[in-house]
Design brief:
By secondary structure, the chain is α/β, with parallel strands linked by helices. The protein is built from 13 helices and 23 strands. The protein has a 4-stranded mixed beta sheet with strand order 2-15-17-16. The chain has a 4-stranded mixed beta sheet with strand order 4-5-3-14, covered by helices on one side. Helix 1 packs across helix 6, helix 5 packs parallel to helix 6 and helix 9 runs parallel beside helix 12.
């Protein structure tokens, strides 16, 4: 596979496929932070091996955390109760939002710390102000090398005080999750009030539930009331020391959607009992479009045997999956409107604008607003494209690469001739390094 581009080979129609999905990135990086905050060692089974997770592991090791890798998807972390032995370090968060927010909060918790942080070019533009302002009020000191409240910066930490927290997490729920994760380690009672509503609320619920999993029921003390949170001071101590990480529900969305492109059916293994990830609700959206999704003993089976329709959907709570359905809009029977996605303009790239730009290469009409996109598919797409090979720009964003690869799996010309070319396919390494190998195996092993 060329590192510059990849032509997607369409599947034959009516295939039946089984597929395994790697561990959740969101759970993996939360589990890494919670394991550091933990008293005692934790064995993380099913941890994702990807750029985002590896960046977190490298950073934690540089900060003195002992981490042993048992195999590709299993590591042991020796918890420190949140206290880092290295008090001065230079760290790079890449383009990993969870690392940027969670690690900054963990560093602010330290006594006598001095840490320099930077990220990718794209990360230097991503929102950090809500987190930085909150940490500054509570005792952390920041100095910025270039742009105020953005990477690169230096943080001087000396613990966090007990003032009430007023947080603006309207651009990223990770800002709230970052404070929630460290709050039990602040002596006394922590009170958090959101200035505005937050986006992607299921990820906040994931954070709180994982905090519960890493503590005993008798000690866990988190009370949520609308947009306020009350957290007591308690120790993280995972009972048994073994934590199993769920398969990635966002990654599963690509394969649950694959039947839209190839008809037939796909069994996505081991995601039938996902408890933590809100993105599992993407299956409800595609069910509304006409995909049959059934829970089986070994996973979820998605199948299609008729036309699939568009609709009007709010993706605010499951915004990482909006690209999956949007990319498939050219082969839907009716128009598709997706709203609740304004905050995704501040993620790896401006995902709303980027999606509109790429779709305009394929469909007859796309309308963009600050918070939504509306797409009308072409009635005769194969005649409209006239055997063109459409190059998809991915903006160094893994979700563009994976979403449009599912579209490219559709046999548009009836001869398994590629019609979608993915530029920079290896941007998938951020969360799913083996995506294209898995997709290829699905095509060759289909029955």
């Amino acid at each position: 596979m060329s590192s510059d581009s990849l032509d997607i080979i369409p599947f034959r129609n009516n295939a039946k496929i089984n597929v395994d999905i790697p561990g959740s990135k969101s759970i993996s990086n939360r589990a890494l932070i919670l394991s550091v905050l933990n008293y005692g060692k934790v064995n993380l089974k099913g941890i994702l091996e990807s750029d985002d997770v590896n960046i977190m592991i490298v950073a934690l090791r540089k900060l003195g955390v002992k981490i042993e890798r048992e195999n590709k998807n299993s590591i042991v972390i020796f918890g420190t109760g949140g206290k880092l032995s290295v008090k001065k370090a230079t760290l790079n968060v890449g383009n990993a939002g969870t690392v940027a927010r969670f690690l900054t909060a963990l560093l602010a918790l330290q006594d006598d710390g001095e840490y320099s942080l930077d990220g990718s070019v794209a990360m230097r533009e991503r929102p950090m102000e809500g987190l930085i302002n909150a940490l500054e009020i509570h005792g952390a000191k920041f100095s910025f090398n270039k742009k105020l409240n953005h990477f690169p910066f230096k943080i001087i930490s000396n613990g966090l005080n007990l003032e009430n927290w007023d947080i603006d997490a309207s651009l990223s729920s990770q800002i709230l999750s970052a404070i929630l994760l460290i709050s039990p380690c602040i002596l006394g009672e922590t009170k958090i009030q959101l200035k505005k509503d937050t986006v992607s609320k299921p990820f906040v619920k994931m954070t709180i539930e994982m905090m519960r999993q890493f503590s005993t029921e008798s000690e866990f003390n988190v009370v949520e009331d609308n947009n306020s949170y009350l957290i007591g001071n308690f120790k993280f101590k995972h009972v048994g020391g073994l934590y199993n990480i769920e398969p990635d529900a966002t990654a599963a969305s690509y394969f649950l959607s694959l039947p839209i492109a190839i008809r037939g059916s796909v069994l996505v293994k081991n995601i039938q009992n996902c408890q933590l990830q809100g993105d599992i609700n993407y299956s409800r959206v595609i069910s509304s479009c006409g995909v049959t999704v059934k829970k089986e003993n070994f996973g979820l089976i998605a199948s299609v045997d008729s036309e699939i329709y568009g609709g009007d959907f709010n993706f605010n709570d499951i915004s990482d999956t909006f690209l999956t359905l949007a990319a498939l809009s050219p082969i839907l029977k009716t128009p598709l409107k997706i709203s609740g996605i304004a905050h995704t303009r501040n993620q790896e790239t401006d995902r709303v604008s980027g999606m509109v730009t790429q779709l305009r290469k394929i469909v007859s009409y796309v309308e963009e607003s600050e918070d939504s996109i509306y797409i009308e598919p072409h009635k005769n797409l194969n005649k409209y494209l006239k055997n063109k090979l459409i190059s998809i720009e991915t903006y160094e964003d893994h979700r563009f690469a994976m979403s449009f690869s599912v579209l490219g799996s559709f046999d548009l010309y009836g001869s398994q001739t590629p019609w979608i070319k993915i530029l920079d396919p290896m941007c998938c390494a951020k969360t799913f390094p083996e995506f294209f190998e898995v997709l290829s195996l699905c095509r060759t092993n289909a029955v």
